[in-house]
Design brief:
This protein is of the alpha+beta class. The chain is built from three helices and seven strands; from the N terminus they run H-E-E-E-E-E-E-E-H-H. The strands form two sheets. The chain has a five-stranded antiparallel sheet with strand order 1-2-3-6-7. Bound molecules: nickel (II) ion.
Amino acid sequence: MALREILVVPHPVLKQVSQPVETVDDELRALMDDMLETMYDAPGIGLAAVQIGVPKRVIVMDISGPEEPKAPQYFVNPEILSASDDRLPYEEGCLSVPEIYDEIERPARIRLRYLNYHGETVEEDAEGLYAVCIQHEMDHLEGVLFIDYLSRLKRDRAVQKVKKLTRV
Ligand code: NI
């Protein structure tokens, strides 16, 4: 396993649409292992492969609380099968937009389909933080960041802040 560099805005790769994975093999599992290690190190609760410069439809997450045992989750080629009409506001942040937080509204409940770490198809319902986080990560696969939902003014200000923060 290895730590990878996390790309931050306004890196152009973050705007790329990620490509579907054809097979879940050892090479892909090695990528997912690196992603998980990188996410824990950051620390964060979700990471899409494109955030380390690999535009494939792969996500890792762990939304367990600080006092709970680790609960890594892996999503390959995730799809949203249905989404509730009611929406949940949640203050989001992103490892690619460090130190910026803002409230975003998304469907409160969704039904998901994806391939897991072993390449098995899983279908399940998500709500609460799980629903928020997987929708945020799936946006990354389309080249969408949570700041894209903010006003242009707020978005530009966020990018400027990150630029200043990451300038050495
Ligand atoms: Ni993010």
